[in-house]
Amino acid sequence: MTSKNPDLSFLPHALIYAGCLPFIAGALLLAGNVHSLPVLGDVDLIMATYGLVICVFLTGIHWGQQLSLGKAAKGFFIVSNILALALWLAWLLLPTRMFLVFLAAPLLMILALDAGLNKSGILNAAYFRTRVIITSVVILSLLCAAAML
User: Fold this and answer.
1) Do 97 and 43 form a contact (C-beta atoms < 8 A)?
2) How far separated are the first and last CA of the chain, in Å rounded?
3) Most CB within 10 Å of its CB: which of 18, 39, 80, 109?
4) CA angle 8, 13, 14 (to 5 degrees)
5) Is 59 exposed, middle or buried (0-12, 13-18, 19+ CB in 10 A)?
6) Residue 42's beta-bridge partner residues?
7) With contact defined as beta carbons under 8 Å apart, do 66 and 78 qualify?
8) Could you report the per-residue pLDDT of 1-45, keeping only the tens digit for each?
9) For residue 41, what are the β-bridge partners?
10) 28-40 burial string, b = 16+ CB within 10 Å, else e?
């Protein structure tokens, strides 16, 4: 009996696209004047906490890349720590609306790090293109949501 391993090469792209759905949904809910959801709470707070989790997750990916790539990802330990701490401080200090706007900055910085990895051939072009599209959609959703508060 032979067993075939399924091709899961689509999975990273599918997860990235699925990961942006809460941002889109939040912006659409606020556009429809829905500011609170049963059980989950305020839509802006849901978006803000999800944005915090996603950004910290992405900084963790860069930490892991530094561990596995060594000098090829020089400085990722420091940058990922600074971004994670900045996100935490912004979460503590900023009103939710301002935090939604603030999230655009670390998302762009993380994308810039990925651009460097793409340029050096560590990330493949298709993955990086997906990251650019999704980061753009997420930032647009965050800024639209903040504008509606």
Assistant:
1) no
2) 60
3) 80
4) 80
5) buried
6) 36
7) no
8) 556 777 877 888 899 999 999 999 999 999 999 999 999 999 999
9) 37
10) ebbeeeeeeeeee
Tell me how far apart the alpha carbons of residues 72 and 115 are, in angstroms, rounded to a whole number. 13
Q: How many helices (H) and strands (E) does the chain have?
A: 6, 2
What is the reported pTM? 0.90
Alpha helices in the chain (DSSP H): 11-31, 43-69, 76-93, 96-102, 104-119, 125-147
The CA dihedral of 100, 26, 56, 65, to the nearest 10 degrees, is -120
Q: Which helix (H) or strand (E) holds 27?
A: helix 11-31
DSSP 8-state secondary structure symbol assigned to residue 73: G
Residue 111's SS3 state is helix
Question: Is 76 in contact with 58 (CB distance < 8 Å)?
Answer: no
In contact, 138 and 47? CB cutoff 8 Å: no
Q: Which amino acid is at 143?
A: L
